[in-house]
Amino acid sequence: MDSTPSPSPSSSAFDMVSSALGRYIPRGGAAAAPDPADARGDRTTHPRVPDGPAAGRQDQILGAVNLDRDLRITRCNLDAPVFAGLDAVTGSSFVDFLPPGDVPTVTRRLRQVLETGEAHVARIQRLRRGDGSELVVSMSILPAALPHEGLTVSLIAMARRLHLYAAETAIGTSLDIGETAQSLAQSLLAWGDVAAVDLDFAVWTGEGVTGQGQGRIRLRRAALVPDRAWPDGYATPGDDLPSDASRLLARAVLRDDAPQAIVLPDREAVERVLGSPRVMRALVPGDRSAGVACIPLVLDGAPSVVLGVAEVWRRADRPFRDSELLDLQELVARTAHHVDLARQHHREHTQVLALQRRLLPRSGGDTIEIASVYQPATPDSAGVGGDWVNSFPLPDGRTALVVGDVVGHGLGAAATMGQLSMEARALLSAGLAPDEVLEHLDKTVTMLDDAESGLAAGYSALGSTCCIALYDPVSHHVALSSAGHLPPVLVSPDGHAGPLAISPHPGLGAEFALREPFDVHTFHTPPGSLLALFTDGLVEDPAASIDEGIVRLADAVSGVHPWDSLQQAARHIVSALAPVRQRDDVTLLLARMIGYRKGDTAVWRLPARDDAPARARSQVSALLRKWRTRDDTRDNVLLLVSELVTNAVRFAAGPITVRLIRAGHGLLCEVGDTGNGRPRLSRGSLLDDGGRGLHIVHRLTTRWGVRWTDTGKVVWAEVAR
């Protein structure tokens, strides 16, 4: 039978908890720790201290602290060895033992029990010792029994198992390599005075980590705790360890080609192993930290792969016990896969980010100014999304502005994003209108949703969005089509700003019953207009609607002054509207319309009659003389115009439009008609009657092509000046 006397009904909670301490603590106070000198013995051959009978009693120890209504200590019973370092002095505040970040929460719980009289049971809590280390306990808050006032806080210190549980839970919450390593180092600090995590350089770069030969590992410091001023030469986070230090650590943990934990119990052993003063300065945190346990971060496999090394330093008078070393190995083994997951995530994040940055527009041109900002999702999110933005000049002098948002994150979204972006560029360069391009992209997304296509098996891009705008610098009009995308914001030269009025349309790959023809909306954009294309990450806010976000964006864009740097303005808008840490990509494209000067363009409308070529030559010749064009260039342009107009009269009906543009180092000639036939360059000779004109066009120009309009087509050609 239990010989411990039962407390009386009038006993306080403190008395009841204190009486229970007799079941765990030997009579006479704290269990005596083994003499360090006896435990160490020969420091070189016995680097760890075996666990004695007293060590088992430290696995679960009960303590009690009595508090008054001001949360100050009135009585305490923390005699168990595991509570060593908790200087509970009568009259001191209990919250002094708490980490600063926990003070508000725990204080609120203590006050709540005081007011309601309802106990708060089994809260996992960290307590700070006087030396800065922490102890993990299960804390219960009990109201004091009448006639006493105040609280009794019971502490069950299961330092090893509870800490392992809490540490593993905390370490797996981030996909960022640095944060994961920092969480591991903070957890390891419970076993020592200083904890560090050094990772293979391949982990940082996201490369595939494979089994490496002994001594070839290259380490970079990923985490170091506690945060303090360190001596010169000591490796801090971000520093590459000296090559000889990396080699020594690799040899230490890869004994017999198998990763193993090692313990160097004192400074003599550390100096003997590290040898070089330079390595000592880089690895040893100070004079007080003499012993170290090195535990490799290992991925199970055949062969095992070492991701890095975790190091726990402590004073020589506190040798590592066998059970402590097993706990360290267990914690590192449990969390090594979190480091590898962070490495894989970083690799995927880097690949997708590189692809998206390649799609960003590099510059505008003489007729339009371009600025763009891409802010990826935070590294610990689900992964970089499928947002993209692009702008590029078309061969006929127009500029294409494209923004899209592919459903999902990661490599599947990146593959689809890359394909859709390149396909849109190719189709626009071939002269297709925005609505026709979206029709092709719609079919592509539907095809990619089929797992048998092989490109995106297991990934669906249905519902992706895209918006295409084509800017004509001669007419100063923008033709725009959208597939489920948020409307761009247009700021007119007079400062009026707002989203463009475009009809909503389902996203790409919508069900057949929902599919509708894509509309083309045309807007006048005089010189000085500012167009903003963006993805939803810029205007999304959990506390507001999308419409309110678009209004905020319109207000921000309207504040851009005509002589402001457009790139700087774009960065300012993103920083003002989007948080630094977000779960979705943020993309913004600003386009300031400039257009051609009125004197650099000319347009003529001619009837489709036999005299049209002659009239066109006369009009163009007069303009070229006014532009002071070279004789050989003028002759080539006149021949080119004559051939294009002749073909239009021969193969088309209706009026003919001739447009001449002086652009950069060339002259751009356009002839539009109402025909729907596509001119093709045949393999016939110049003497053949059919196709002779296109051969002449091909020989005279640097490039030529066709674009389609609502009323027919336009054949364009560029001649060098």
Summarize the structure in words.
The protein has 721 residues and is an alpha+beta fold. The strands form 5 sheets. It has a 5-stranded antiparallel sheet, sandwiched between helices. Strands 7-6-10-9-8 form a 5-stranded antiparallel sheet, with helices on both faces. Helix 5 packs antiparallel against helix 6 (177-188), helix 16 packs antiparallel against helix 17 and helix 17 runs antiparallel to helix 18 (692-700). The longest helix has 38 residues, at 322-359. It is elongated, with a radius of gyration of 37 Å.
> What portion of the residues fall into strands of 2 or more residues?
15-25%
* Helical stretch tally: 18
| Weakly predicted, low-confidence segments | 1-10, 21-47, 52-59, 211-215, 453-457, 685-689
User: How many E-type strands?
Assistant: 25
Largest sheet: 5 strands, antiparallel
What is the mean predicted local confidence, pLDDT? 77
Measured distance between first and last alpha carbons: 110 Å
- Helix content bin: 25-40%
What general form does the structure show? Answer: elongated
In terms of structural class, how would the helical and strand content be classed? alpha+beta
User: Using only CA atoms, what is the Rg?
Assistant: 37 Å
Oligomer: single chain
Question: In what order do the strands lie side by side in the largest sheet?
Answer: 2-1-5-4-3
